[in-house]
Amino acid sequence: MYSGFIIGLILGFLLQRGQFCFVSGFRSLYQQKNLRFCTALLIAISIQSIGIFTLAEFNLIHIPTSQLPILATILGGLCFGVGMTLANCCASGAWFRSAEGAVGSYLALISFTLTMAATQSGFLKHIINHFTADPTAWDNIYLTLNLSPWSLVSLLIFITALLYYYQYKNPRYHFPKPPTPAKILPNIFAHYWSPFFTAGAIGLLGIIAWYFSSKSGRNFGFGIAVPSANVVQYIVTGQQRYLNWGMLFVLGIPIGSYLSAWLAGDFKWRMPEPKGVMQRVLGGVAMGIGAALAGGCTITNAFVSTAYFSWQGWLATLMILLGSWLASLFTKPTQCGI
To answer: How large a percentage of the chain has pLDDT more than 70?
Structure first.
């Protein structure tokens, strides 16, 4: 079970070093027509997809199947996308940004975890259950289409390779950022890491996470939403069932992020604008409701569920993307680290 904490710590380190941010990545796709983040995301998904289906072939893990509640997934994805744009961070971003000193992310994180706890065992539970009841029979894409999962893995790798080749042949100019006062190894810590390298490392870590998580009885990989709720539930009730692999995983993320930020000289307390405080809180609430309806946050849907070709994962990811774009029409973009 304690492997969850170590893996969370490593993930937090990688997220901070690579600034792997869904909000800015989705925003750049919409506003700048920049496919860089989406290419990196597909690299992470592809690597994890190869790994988890290989593990499944050797019966080391089991690929989950879950039915698709279409309306809940659509509404939840849109709600989460709007929420993360308002909060200026997604669920994983709230955990790692807060450890960089971004006070706005603390506000989003607190409201997100409290809302998630309310949807799991509080007053919002029955409302969420009403929307998620009576799902369709669709579970994983390859099962619905009666295909080998490796045919979809091959297609995913092909699309990812094309996008990476395009990025390689058509590099876009990025304004250079001054180096940070790294405490050690300035060649490594004075600059942020390449999103493609970071994505590859996160993809490999996702495979390891799934294997060790399954050993603890939790048949899944990375997960942020429900484990975040478990933190609140454990604090309030003290029930040992909430002290699990997922809870230790999310608690490791801010520690790894803080370690990375400290080594790079990145840590700095940053306050949101006064008028943005309530926006961050409302964004966290919207993310909590959205994650409960859509079966998870960006990490769960856009990274893990897509890797095993869950209908819900791909549909939720599309809706999160559309929700973030919609909210971008009405909100003033700010730096994610604020």
So the answer is: 93
Residue 227 pLDDT grade (very low, low, confident, very high; cuts 50, 70, 90): very high
| Domain range list for the chain | 3-171+181-328
Q: Which helix (H) or strand (E) holds 26?
A: helix 22-31
Contact 1, 244 (CB under 8 A): yes
pLDDT for residue 62 = 94
* pTM of the predicted structure, to 2 decimals: 0.93
What b/e string do you get for 190-202 counting C-beta neighbours within 10 Å, with b at 16 or more?
bbbbebbebbbbb
Mean pLDDT in residue range 271-289:
92
What's the length of the chain? 338
Separation CA 19–CA 25 (nearest Å): 10
Residue 300 has pLDDT above 60, yes or no: yes
C-alpha to C-alpha distances, 108 to 22, 92, 213, nearest whole angstrom: 15, 11, 27
Of 237, 254, 313, 221, which Cα lies nearest the Cα of 109? 254
Task: Output the six-digit token pair for 301.
Answer: 């849907």
Q: Which of 183, 260, 206, 194 is nearest to 16 (CA)?
A: 260
- CA–chain centroid gap for 82, Å, is 15
Q: Return d(Cα 97, Cα 99) in angstroms, integer.
A: 5
DSSP 286-300: HHHHHHHHHTS-HII
Whole-number Å distance between alpha carbons of 261 and 244? 27
Question: Does residue 63 surpass a pLDDT of 60?
Answer: yes
How far apart are the C-alpha atoms of 9 and 254, rounded to whole Å? Answer: 7
Burial of 168 (0-12, 13-18, 19+ CB in 10 A): exposed
Residue 18's pLDDT is 92
| Closest residue by Cα to residue 102 from 264, 269, 250, 258 | 269
Residue 138 confidence (pLDDT) above 80: yes
Q: Give the model's pLDDT for residue 176.
A: 63
